[in-house]
Amino acid sequence: MQSKPQLLAWLTCDGVHIDPGSGKHTILGIFSNIQARQFPVTHPFMIWFLTITDCAPGEHKLRIAMSLDATNPQPLLERPFESQSPLHRINLINEIRNLTFPQPGEYSLLIEIDDEPLLATSLTVTN
Question: Does an H or E element contain 67, and which?
């Protein structure tokens, strides 16, 4: 039986620096909510950082969808990635630019790999 990908980390942050010598990742400015004075508001730049493991060797597809209504998530990002081995830890750095939030609320996020849900979480946007 093939293993199911496992999520080891999910972070929303301002930046990720990868040390060219060691390959280590430094996470900058982790946050879990967004405050705005007025709506709609557009957040200029954030990174959604994932670490996954137990991914079968080969090509895979990451999809992240978001909505205010959890029953109708709209795809925000789709990208391919490759796994060498289920033992590897894969860091996926996803740059999100100019994301608009029409109103305050709990925005549902659905993270899928190969059309299988990996994580359902939320991002709070307040005024």
Answer: strand 58-67
Give the CA distances from residue 79 to residues 32, 36, 60, 113, 120, in Å, rounded to whole numbers and listed in that order.
Answer: 23, 29, 8, 10, 18
* Reported pTM: 0.93
* Tens place of pLDDT per residue across the chain (127 aa): 567 999 999 999 999 999 999 999 999 999 999 999 999 999 999 999 999 999 999 999 999 999 998 788 899 999 999 999 999 999 999 999 999 999 999 999 999 999 999 999 999 999 9
CATH 3.90.1300.10 correct for 6-126: no
Measured CA to CA, the distance from residue 41 to residue 56 in angstroms comes to 39
Domain locations in the chain as residue ranges: 6-126
- Those residues with Cβ within 8 angstroms of residue 14's Cβ, 6 or more apart along the chain or in another chain: 28, 29, 31, 45, 46, 47
